[in-house]
Amino acid sequence: MYPPLPNPSVQPSAMQYGQEDLVRRSASTVPTPPRQLTPVAKLIDVSKCIGCKACQVACLEWNDMREEVGVNTGVYENPHDLTPASFTLMRFTEWENGETGNLEWLIRKDGCMHCGDPGCLKACPAPGAIVQYSNGIVDFVKENCIGCGYCVKGCPFNIPRISKVDHKAYKCTLCSDRVAVGQGPACAKACPTQAIVFGPKEDMIQHANARIEDLKSRGFQNAGLYDPPGVGGTHVMYVLHHADKPEIYADLPKDPKISPVVELWKGLTKYAGLTAIASFVGIGFLHHIVSGANRVSAEDERNAKRLTENQPGGG
Amino acid sequence: MTNSWTDIKNTDLVIIMGGNAAEAHPCGFKWVTEAKANRGAKLIVVDPRFTRSASVADFYAPIRQGTDIAFILGLINYCIQNDKVHWDYVKAFTNATYLVKDGFSFKDGLFSGYDESKREYDKSSWDYQIGEDGFVMVDDTLSNPRCVWNLLKEHVSVYTPEMVERICGTPKDKYLKVAEMVAETSSPTKTMTSMYALGWTQHSKGSQNIRSMAMLQLILGNIGMRGGGMNALRGHSNIQGLTDIGLMSNLIPGYLTIPTQKEVDFATYMSTRGFKPLRPDQMSYWQNYKKFFVSFQKSMWGDEAQPWNDFAYDWLPKLDVPAYDVLRAFELMHQGKMNGYVCQGFNPLLSFPNRKKCTDALSKLKFLVTMDPLDTETARFWENHGEYNDVDPSQIQTEVIQLPSTCFAEDDGSLVNSGRWLQWHWAGGTPPGEAQRDTWIMAQIWKRLKALYEKEDGPLPDPILKVRWPYADPDDPKADEIAREINGYAIEAVYDPTDPTKVLVEKGKQLASFGQLRDDGTTSCGCWIYTGCFTEDGNNMARRDNSDPDEAGFYSKWAFSWPANRRILYNRASADMNGQPWDPSRKVIAWNGTKWEGYDVPDIAPTAKPDVVGPFIMNPEGTARLFTRTMMKDGPFPAHYEPFESPIANPVAPNVKGNPAARVFEGDMAQFGEAEKFPYAATSYRLTEHFHFWTKHVQPNAVMQPEFFVEISEQLAEEKGIKQGGWVKVMSNRGEVKAKAVVTKRIKPLQCDGKTVHIVGVPLHWGFTGVAKKGLGPNTLTPFVGDANIETPEYKAFLVDIAPLTEPVS
Amino acid sequence: MNMELSRRTLLKGAGVGLAGTALGAFGFGGIEAAYADAIRAFKLVGTTETRNTCPYCSVACGVIMYSKGDLTKGEKAEITHIEGDVDHPTNRGTLCPKGAALLDFVKSETRLTKPRIRKPGADKFEDISWNDALDRIARLMKDDRDANFEAQNQDGVTVNRWKTTGFLAASASTNETAFLTYKVVRSTGILAFDNQARV
């Protein structure tokens, strides 16, 4: 058993990290942090997951979120996709293993991967709406979000969702509030089988290696860790029984990368900021932003491309 | 459970069959994943559906629902044929060597003594041969053809892998793989644990399903061992406690029994409860029955229970039938023979089979009282909810009173988990509105009944008027007061039987153990198996020391486990005839030359010599029963019977329909459906996202699985033109439901006796109250028949037809 | 329950009491509001903890209920959060999707708050006081018992039973509720007494 953390204290306590630990801030710069926090990670062992959705419920409860009662569409995913309230979702795949002839029910907890190189943050034009701490947590700061949806486009995993109510982007915070007082994320604490564990990333990799060894001994020769280098590694990692085929786990990308568009866009937001963007593209685009876009349209993309192309000194 | 949740980590092999632990008991299932990590344990799942338990199993084998006995007897046959038997254990600790009467036989699916007109057996031939010394005759060489072992060998010989495949639909290669894995645990240093739940009980032969596995576990030597045992996962949080305390028609707390009307007086009642040992030097612990019974009567009626009135024996009601189980109660209600009914936290309208019959039955009551923290369908059975409750209130004359009770968060008290741990909890929230604790409600009802009888008189008021009521505030008894009463106390000083001058317990003090109970009226005890839970040391159920020496998994200082804080039942059987552990790495207790000691409280007298006293101390034999004499209504061995509604005839007994000893009420026999009209084998179950009908009221759980659905294979969907997520109609001979279709690879058609059998899965949860989508459930479809021994309804195997619905359903 | 060293190092400091705001202590007093809000304040600070057991299945997971207000001090207590109890040997702090949503059971909109009565033939419930409801129940029970109590069977054997009213006990109520219920129900001679062991 991975040793559980002690119960949380109800006494006030010091936050273990804060704004001085930011290493990135969208569309703005941050001073060099005075220290390097121990990188943390959430490890999701798909081979131990029983798909019970305790993580989904714990997430809703901890974050005081309410999801709508939906309908059944013939599958076990409920809700049917990530939403502004549901930061995490069990995705179920019935996969017939051609080699063994066995059915495998692959159940993957989807949600923010907390990329080392976060595409959402890089795509974000709103100063301070997305931040990254030196422990690896990528967090959204709702007060600064303009609801443009560029983070969705920037994310190689298609994670953030924009609320139709307040037009802000939402995703998993890795329970930044819990981590700040020495707790792990609510989903990891709840997980009945410890398919989700949380701790220093180094320990998580070690723990994963032991799990992978066990899986190999049980006939899963391609078991492995999913920590994709294309996005600078992630602070949410998976143990997969078939690490050679991540795509069979409800389209987990094999080699995720930040879109080149975002890489260009990054320079613009970093140096020009929102005001500059607004002055560039004119009233129409600004209106689009303010009135609450909830997805990136082709037009947005064209605008973005045009902007990056026209931006002097960007990059 | 014979063992505990935390002990599962000590196993080498987990077999989940008749349950779905990962879905129904996720946090307990954690210990399966721990066993895999600690010991490289393997997990086998046997189920008609590829469940979430199967998704993390090392090996999955499909089975047709209702054929578990054939599957397990086949495993016993395999072990016998391949010499995979823990011989020393079997010979010493079971009744394998005992000789059975010559009159006992089994032929054409029936045991000796069957009376078809009564659907009952004359069980007189199902017993041992008794020698002149008054003890059972044995043959230690196992050569006598009448010894239990040889009768068993013969009995299971029909269940070959080929026959198992024919009955169960389990492909032979998969079956043999399971058999090999299971048989390996016959080694003294390997154990298997059986995790089961309502997937085994909810059959017309549910008790025999469990017996089959218990027999296999004995043959493998896995009972009493760390990481072994028969582990009933159990359902509700205190179903173990409610059963222990005997809230059943035929029980008295601590598994004592309510007298029948044939037991005309206390002497007659006790005459069949002597439990004289059947083998020399055995403990036969039930010989203490009278101590438990008298102490209970004292807790019930205090000074009114005296030797001169047989301790108020007459004040107990006497049974005229074996039991007034819920099926019988609803049958009587349906016949108009029941006028009043009180449901304390229960939802029969969704829980009991044949919903139409339930509605009709409730409609014939004069009054119905419900007590619940949440709204229930039962309390509103008279209310029209369109297709979800199509009744006409004006035609229903039942008076209904709905009382709001508190929930767990608002009261103190103890619950007993599956592993028999009595755990105390504390109230932390203020009840909403006028909600009241059940203890207050029951006290108020009693107080008012008492007042009415004091004022108006009536038949036999004394048992009511003179109930012992020792609470500081008689209007509102407190949990700790009742807990002390359940534990028991010394009414008079209790003396040491070997030294009458020595006081063991002073007058008025709490008892420390049930060994201190007396049959002369000097002790009072509500439930003898709980004695020790609240002693002079305080409330042991509230203990919170989670230390676990050597990480053995016992947690003996956490809460209190009945009996006597013992964590593994039959733990004497974990050691050999010299008292040394079969597996030294998994010691439970050991004989040190003068007494037993170890991690756990020995399940035997501490100084009982290992080569003399057998480990199964509750049996007069001192051994466990492979042949169960007359204890079961449907046979001393299990035998395969088809469900009452089955897609095929019984391949081993084609002329026997269902379990021949199961009770079927007259009108219900006619309501069984036939395979010609209802060709598909249906089963019902709960989803991991839900807890029965409660979580309809819990918003996040309603979100996780919002709408009623049924699950079918891709093949059946194709055959019937049913689309993923489309609406379907499912029909049985008793009713029909509309549901969404989940078409899945996780259900596959089976080949049984040359026939393709399609399976339809029908989950339960939905109703017409709460925040989930409205819906119907399996009990609209299921038949009104129960297990032959304890009347658990046959929810797990019934017949349906299914058809796509084209019109949109509002 | 040993802790790994690096983990302890990483997470040390949790639970250490500290006066004033956390940010202040770190010297970030001057940071703009938006910065300060980025990490939500820990919502359990200042709540009262009470140990309980999950009421659903019989794994019986330990839970901690966090409330505003403390019942043991005679205050009203409103439960604001429920989470697994790490000290519990069985669940070690984990909870399933039902247990994780216990708060919404406690605070369900369909919790019952008042006694109600539905009269014969009526199509709705009406409110009734506790006193009237309990008086009515006792009256109905006594009338039925008096009319149908069987002191002796046809063979003259004392049987002292009442077969026309049944009682169905719960299976999630406490042992203490169960025992008190047993005493009240059995003393009346009711035979049709059962619980939820089977379904």
Can you walk me through this structure?
The complex is a heterotrimer of chains A (315), B (810) and C (199). Chain A contains ten helices and eleven strands. With 315 residues, chain A is an alpha+beta fold. Chain A has a four-stranded mixed beta sheet. Chain A has a three-stranded antiparallel beta sheet with strand order 1-5-6, with no helix packed on it. The relative contact order of chain A is 0.18. Chain B is built from 21 helices and 33 strands. Chain B has 810 residues and is α/β, with parallel strands linked by helices. The relative contact order of chain B is 0.14. Among the domains of chain B are: 21-232, Dimethylsulfoxide Reductase, domain 2, CATH 3.40.228.10; 326-465, Rossmann fold; 666-804, Barwin-like endoglucanases (Beta Barrel), CATH 2.40.40. In chain B, strands 27-29-28-33-26-32 form a six-stranded mixed beta sheet. A five-stranded parallel beta sheet of chain B has the order 3-2-1-8-9, with helices on both faces. The model of chain C is unreliable at 1-34 (pLDDT under 50). In chain C, 27% of the residues lie in helices and 19% in strands. Chain C folds into three domains: 36-108, 2-Layer Sandwich (Phosphorylase Kinase, domain 1); 112-148, no CATH class; 149-199, no CATH class. Chain C is elongated. The chains are: A alpha+beta (315), B alpha/beta (810), C alpha+beta (199). Chains in contact: A-B, A-C, B-C. The interface between A and C is large, with 54 and 61 residues.
